[in-house]
């Protein structure tokens, strides 16, 4: 069972998602709705397999997949893909799927390179409150990464429309309006999840007074992220800036998220938190 | 193969000739009814559009060229001197042409989608009139399936190929669905109306119309179910709209100026401005504002040119898909030629089985009779299945019907039997095609 959950299934998932990336890669070069339908179906199968693996692993190790950086990377990859499947149901993303899919595959490779089998872990990582906090954080981060991707799509299409470049990006990206509404949805939901995760962390902090110093330092990136998100949500709500500038803001926020999550992971697993 | 077609299209004849050859819905039905009982004709279908009138036939024996021309003349009412312009295709060439037509590869506008619906209508009419046979049914269904396949698997029908539809494509690239979008129409002339028609067709229902002559604006507004507003449009009208379509004959820009620019700077949501007028109606400096997308006729011409080029590129892939469908039809046809032989085989084997079972039934216990039936039927099915598979394979692989001949003769208890003679005659006809 150990080998199956920590090695065999993750390998199969990487193989499946790698193939899926290949199929979508082919559809960039040529228009083929049959191939795309098959790829969408295969993507759903992949999401279902991911979910089954996550549940099985959670039951087996009595904790969600957060016990080492490898598991975290895989967990985040799965959440990104669930978000992608949800977005795919709302709009036909076509070649735009390649971007999140590439992200998922990179996270999976990271996960396998770093190793999925957990070593000795601290008690704080085993607790239910940690599971809730980390799951909310990762779900929020997955959505915010999606938000950055929709922002990037918006910027690319806007540029092509303005420059009269009637290329494949122009023809086959979702419309500006669709990407704008999905960007808004992922931004607001991501903001809500990150804020809720921050609140849950503060509750944990109060419950474990002895760990205050170390946990608080891990929370600094989270507080910074929540602040950036709040500003973006307000700018979006009150139309302080144009849609294109908001999209650029979301891309920058997404990159910040990647940096902050790396800082957090390093601090949790290789830093001072016990 | 017992398939042929005769037709005229935009490549072979002038519009005057095509108009005269064209058949309305009623005339197609009448022609099908009249012709379907003709000698040497097992199946008939007629495709008549503004660009082509084609008759698809499945004869017992191939017609001579003159016979087909006379038939075309009889159906369409076209004089003999014009029917000589008609193209005549037979067998593989005929099915290839039918598939290419359904795929939009033979259309004046490459990849156009209407032809597939027209092909479906032609098939439905022929079916209603009882004018088709198995071969024509299969050929038409194969053409329709190929048409769908080509459109699904290539981009041959994608992208607008006229200025008005390019404007709609651009609006869809920005807003996605145009349902519920608000449009300000500036001008009430031919171009403005054409653009409005295209936008109405994709779901726009909320209109404001403005024109120098208010009476004309009112006519258009009434047609669209919108309301008339002042000319030139006020900043408030532009602020209201998601899409501005401007096509007036004015010599100076009608949309621009400080008030409009100030209003647009504040709006913070996408506005698509389609300037279809020459000289231009919209101040070009508006395109510098974020969230404002300004497009002119030249831009749409460029988009149309790119789309046409893409379609031509996709046509190469479409031809490969067409060829695959043609080959599948040809294989089906070849395999199907031995069906009468297989049916004869089945009849003979079933008679033998039944006879032998009845003859030997008394040797078995009554409770074993059912098992005896099951066993004999299973044995017969195995023999019949093996022979049928080999017959079909031989027929499809090397176009050789000698095995079918041999089986038909071998299975005949009486070579002079009428049924056996009919099977052999059918094989002879198929072999001669």
Outline of the structure:
The complex is a heterodimer of chains A (274) and B (433). Chain A is mostly helical.
Helix content of chain A: over 70%
Let me know the largest β-sheet of chain B.
6 strands, parallel
Summed up, the domain count of chain B is 3
- What is the general shape of chain A? flat
Class per helix and strand makeup of chain B: alpha/beta
Compute the CA-based radius of gyration of chain A: 19 Å
- What best-fitting shape of chain B do the alpha-carbon axes yield? elongated
Uncertain stretches of chain B: none
End-to-end Cα distance of chain A: 29 Å
Question: How would you characterize this protein structure?
Answer:
The complex is a heterodimer of chains A (274) and B (433). Chain A is mostly helical. Chain A has two domains: 1-119; 122-274, no CATH class. Chain A has helices at residues 2-29, 33-61, 69-90, 98-114, 123-126, 128-163, 168-172, 176-207, 212-237, 243-270. In chain A, helix 9 runs antiparallel to helix 10 (243-270). The two termini of chain A are 29 Å apart. Chain B is an alpha/beta fold and 433 residues long. Chain B folds into three domains: 4-158, Glutamyl-tRNA reductase, N-terminal domain (Beta Polymerase, domain 2), CATH 3.30.460.30; 165-304, Rossmann fold; 336-432. Chain B is built from 17 helices and ten strands. A six-stranded parallel beta sheet of chain B has the order 7-6-5-8-9-10. In chain B, strand 2 and strand 3 form a beta hairpin. The longest helix of chain B is centred in the last third of the chain and has 40 residues, at 297-336. The radius of gyration of chain B is 32 Å and the shape is elongated. The N and C termini of chain B lie close together (5 Å). The chains are: A mainly alpha (274), B alpha/beta (433).
Helix-strand layout with pairing:
The complex is a heterodimer of chains A (274) and B (433).
Chain A: H1 2-29, H2 33-61, H3 69-90, H4 98-114, H5 123-126, H6 128-163, H7 168-172, H8 176-207, H9 212-237, H10 243-270
Helix pairs in contact in A: 1-2, 1-4, 2-3, 3-4, 3-6, 6-8, 6-10, 8-9, 9-10
Chain B: E1 4-9, H1 15-21, H2 25-35, E2 43-48, E3 52-58, H3 65-76, H4 80-83, E4 87-90, H5 91-103, H6 114-128, H7 134-153, H8 163-175, E5 182-186, H9 190-201, E6 206-210, H10 214-224, E7 227-228, H11 235-240, E8 243-246, H12 257-267, E9 271-275, E10 292-296, H13 297-336, H14 339-360, H15 369-398, H16 402-410, H17 418-432
Parallel strand pairs in B: 5-6, 5-8, 6-7, 8-9, 9-10
Antiparallel strand pairs in B: 1-3, 1-4, 2-3
Helix pairs in contact in B: 5-7, 5-13, 6-7, 7-13, 8-9, 8-13, 13-15, 14-15, 16-17
């Amino acid at each position: 069972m150990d080998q199956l959950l920590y090695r065999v299934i993750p390998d199969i998932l990487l193989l499946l998602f790698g193939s899926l990336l290949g199929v979508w890669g082919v559809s960039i070069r040529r228009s083929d709705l049959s191939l795309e339908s098959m790829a969408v179906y295969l993507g759903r199968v992949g999401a279902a397999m991911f979910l089954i693996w996550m549940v099985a692993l959670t039951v087996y190790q009595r904790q969600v997949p957060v016990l080492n950086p490898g598991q975290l990377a895989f967990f985040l990859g799965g959440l990104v893909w669930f978000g992608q499947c949800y977005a795919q149901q709302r709009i036909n993303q076509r070649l735009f799927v390649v971007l999140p899919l590439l992200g998922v595959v990179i996270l999976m490779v990271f996960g396998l390179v770093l190793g999925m089998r957990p070593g000795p872990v601290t008690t704080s990582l085993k607790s239910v409150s940690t599971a809730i906090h980390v799951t909310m954080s990762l779900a929020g981060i997955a959505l915010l990464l999606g938000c950055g991707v929709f922002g990037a799509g918006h910027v690319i299409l806007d540029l092509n429309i303005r420059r009269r470049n009637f290329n494949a990006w122009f023809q086959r990206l979702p419309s500006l309006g669709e990407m704008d509404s999905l960007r808004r949805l992922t931004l607001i939901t991501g903001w809500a999840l990150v804020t809720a995760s921050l609140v849950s962390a503060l509750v944990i902090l109060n419950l474990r007074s002895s760990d205050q110093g170390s946990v608080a330092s891990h929370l600094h990136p989270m507080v910074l992220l929540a602040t950036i998100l709040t500003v973006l949500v307000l700018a979006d709500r009150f139309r302080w800036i144009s849609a294109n500038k908001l999209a650029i803001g979301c891309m920058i926020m997404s990159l910040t998220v990647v940096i902050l999550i790396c800082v957090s992971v390093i601090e949790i697993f290789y830093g001072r938190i016990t | 193969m017992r398939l042929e077609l005769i037709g005229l299209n935009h490549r072979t004849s002038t519009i005057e000739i095509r108009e005269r050859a064209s058949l309305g819905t009623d005339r197609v039905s009448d022609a099908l009814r009249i012709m379907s009982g003709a000698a040497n004709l097992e199946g008939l279908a007629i495709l008549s559009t503004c660009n082509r009138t084609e008759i698809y036939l499945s004869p017992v024996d191939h017609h001579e060229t003159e016979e087909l021309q006379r038939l075309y003349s009889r159906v369409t009412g076209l004089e003999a001197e014009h029917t000589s312009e008609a193209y005549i295709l037979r067998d593989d060439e005929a099915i290839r042409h039918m598939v290419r037509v359904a795929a939009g590869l033979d259309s004046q506008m490459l990849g156009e989608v209407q032809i597939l619906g027209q092909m479906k209508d032609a098939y439905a009419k022929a079916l209603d009139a009882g004018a088709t046979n198995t071969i024509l049914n299969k050929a038409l269904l194969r053409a329709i399936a190929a048409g769908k396949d080509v459109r699904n698997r290539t981009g041959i029908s994608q992208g607008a190929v006229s200025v008005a539809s390019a404007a709609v494509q651009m609006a869809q690239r920005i807003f996605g669905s145009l349902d519920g979008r608000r449009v300000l129409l500036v001008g009430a002339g031919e171009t403005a109306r054409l653009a409005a028609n295209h936008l109405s067709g994709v779901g726009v229902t909320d209109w404001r119309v403005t024109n120098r002559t208010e009476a004309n604006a009112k006519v258009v507004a009434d047609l669209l179910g919108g309301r008339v507003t002042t000319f030139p449009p006020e900043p408030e009208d532009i602020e209201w709209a998601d899409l501005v379509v401007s096509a007036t004959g004015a010599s100076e820009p009608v949309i621009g100026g400080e008030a409009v620019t100030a209003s647009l700077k504040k709006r913070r949501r996408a506005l698509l401005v389609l300037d279809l007028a020459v000289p231009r109606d919209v101040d070009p400096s508006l395109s510098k504002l974020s969230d404002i997308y300004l497009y002119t006729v030249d831009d749409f011409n460029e988009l149309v040119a790119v789309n046409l080029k893409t379609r031509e590129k996709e046509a190469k892939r479409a031809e490969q898909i067409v060829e695959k469908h043609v080959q599948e039809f040809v294989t089906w046809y070849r395999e199907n030629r031995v069906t009468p032989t297989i049916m004869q085989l089945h009849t003979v084997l079933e008679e033998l089985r039944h006879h032998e079972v009845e003859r030997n039934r008394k040797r078995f216990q009554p409770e074993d009779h059912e098992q005896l039936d099951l066993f004999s039927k299973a044995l017969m099915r195995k023999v019949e299945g093996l022979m049928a598979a080999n017959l079909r394979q031989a027929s499809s692989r090397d176009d050789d019907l000698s095995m079918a001949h041999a089986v038909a003769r071998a299975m005949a208890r009486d070579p002079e039997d009428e049924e056996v003679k009919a099977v052999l005659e059918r094989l002879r006809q198929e072999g001669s095609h």
